[in-house]
Amino acid sequence: MTVGTSASIDTIGALRTYNGAAPGTGQVYVFDVQGYNTAADGGGGAFSYGSAATADALFTGSVSGTTLTVAATPPVNGTVRVGQAVSGPGVLAGTYIVSQISGTGGAGTYKVNISQTAALQAMTPDNGGTIIVDANLRRWYRDFSGLPSVKHFGAVGNGVSDDSVAINSAITYLNLAGGGTLWLPPSTYVCNIKLKSRVKLQGAGRSYRADATYITTTLFQPVSGGHVIELFDTYPVRTIEPQICDMNILGRGGGSTGSGAVSGRGVSFGAAQFMGAIERVAISNFGDEGLYVGGTAIRCVDCLVTNCVQNWAGLTRYKGASFIAGSDHKIDYLESQTSTFQGATSSFNTVTSPDRRAVGILASVTAGFFRDCVGELSDTGWLIYGSIGVGAFGTDEFAYGVSEGTQFIGCRGDRNASSGWRFVNGARQYRLSECLSLNNCGGASADGEYDGFEEESGCFGFFSSCMYDSDLSAYNPKKPKYGFSCWPVSSPAVSKSEYSFCVSRNHSTAWFGTYDSTYGDNMALYPVVPSISKNFIPDTVDGNATPDANRVGVLRLGNTSATTVTNFVNGVNGQDIDVIDVLGHTTIAKGSNISTLSGQNIRMRSNEIRRFKFYRGVWYEVGERSYYAAVPNSSVVIPSGASVSSSDITISGAVPGDWVDAACDVDLQGCLLTGYVKGANTVKAVFANLTGSGVTLASGNLYIKIRPH
User: Fold this and answer.
1) DSSP readout, 599-668?
2) What is the model's pTM?
3) CA–CA distance, 221 with 564 (Å, rounded to integer)
4) N or C: which end of the chain has fewer CB within 10 A?
5) CA angle, corner 197, sides to 195 and 200, nearest 5?
6) Under a CB-based contact definition with an 8 Å cutoff, are residues 698 and 666 in contact?
7) pLDDT tens for residues 363-376?
């Protein structure tokens, strides 16, 4: 190749001789380097060396004052002459040689026109892609514009050849340079990648369509398996700010067979990573976890994980299609599942996968944040695990301690074979707001298996505006036993969660339930003692004379026909409930279990609210102390301008000066109805006719309420 020309790297065999070798020390300076020619990605691209006017003028050296010293090693190429321009790191623009002090056109000293200091620096080594050193130690720089590409380093991207060496060389180059973005042009790369600090893998987007015209970057698992992308560093070294963006990552999973899938994960970020990002990434068809994240402060945005954990046959530990551990992660819009839903007639994950171990999203995170995420089409949608130990997760997991203080906002557990959500092994202080458990129990053998939200083994958290529901469709032909449940209740590890404005619908047994090995699955025998649980809204009650008040703060009654309530069962000392009658068909009966303020039965009106407090087996109506009476009133004629008083009405506790409210259930035709306390325990109602003409009132009932002054 002649001096000053360009050629494809693929045609220069000699340049590969010293790839990866440290060619010595010293900084390369270039005389009169010609402008770079932009080359397209792929096929190697163009390289240039020197210029036609200066005959291979490359050398190493330094400048001190106006003296240029040309080093003897590595060998100088070309001739150094008066009039030549000098360029390189630290050399001021416009510097050129004005005279020769010593030497013969190569090693020696020369005088330059500008006084300055440009110290000798370590030579940047051959990186296999953008900088190549040939057999004569000449340095070749790749001409390119934009981001460095994996194809600069020899990646083929044909979906067959293994590009691991080329891509890892490019990552190392950027890592040693202090970080940067590595471009993966649209292609399919077969690879196992070792990601390093401050390196961002930038793809060309992701697609769910089998459309060759849709530009995507796809990373594909090698036939031998392994993780497609994993972190390189381990403690005490940490991987800082690794990033993956805009790509598909495909495994060689064996489908929904439960065996035969190639081992390995899609993305595996271990405990030594810090402040990374995974954005707009689709991961599919892996034998093990699709997304595996540990460490600290990872941001995961808009990711899809499908058809993962395909080695689920005979699982000995829990596995999630997405496994999120560590602390302080922010996860937005993650949708994750283990396999395609099999339907009601299949035994998928209810027999062959013991203890519901194939999970959509398995989280053991301290102070994490999940928003609008979905765990679906798995044994269990979400598993929130407290302490990860070798016994449950195998020897290749990390001991992260407890899952504590993590928030879930607007997240869902949908269309799973068992429960939508499970909280196990001491997870605590989690907070769920507006989270859903929808259309689960698709793989259950009968109604009454599993639960919508299931807390176990001393877990406790806060549930606000959460809901279980089911449309009983083909995805979910079975009902769960409880919408919400916790167990055990008799051991020291009692669940102490708080529920606010939650609801359960289409369950088989109850909106809330417990299980205890001593007392059995029976809330009446061993009711759960609420700690600070308030405002749990159960399913609408129809025709029930003894609605369940267990852990209830608001009891919503929806009786469609006249019903008399004789007790609110399962109350505990100090518990308050607000009772709402939606349709106005309920009477609350005064009796041994219910004490009313008036001492009479309460006929509830539509959407009326009454408050009661439980103490020693009795529900007491609380609020303003009032006295009531309901008495018949005969038909009465009232001339214009006149008033008519009722007979004396006895109301125990009434004294002169008390306020009196009076009402009648007939049309008063414009007359006024008032009342007053005549004497102790005696009240009169008064009809006054100011209409201007005589009025005849029909017989009806008078209702008198006395409020103490």
Assistant:
1) SS-EEPPTTEEEEEEEETTEEEEESS--EEEEEEE--EEE-TT-EEEPPPEE-TT--TT-EEEEEESS--
2) 0.66
3) 67
4) C
5) 65
6) yes
7) 989 899 999 999 99
